[in-house]
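Student: Send me a single protein entry containing the residue sequence and its fold in token form, directly below this note:

Tutor:
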Amino acid sequence: MDIHETYADDRFTLLSIHTPEFSHEKVVDNVRAAVERLGVPYPVAIDNDFKIWRAFGNRAWPTLYLIDRQGDVRLAKVGEGRFDMVRGAIEYLRENEV
């Protein structure tokens, strides 16, 4: 998914929140190594204590949220794939300056 590259010049901010599923994923150096190995070009926050996870009511990995400029959640997508839906929602918000 190249959403970061596609919309980087469009006042679009992509942020990853890493909430560990397994104990070795709580080790910050492991997360840093994975981010570097995968070439993740956007910020990755670490949510080892599940505060963000609980605040959003998450129940599955991965969950993607699209939040508009006013801070309203416009899309919550659980699972991988269906990035056409994500792109469509981004395009809608972009065209309507929401």
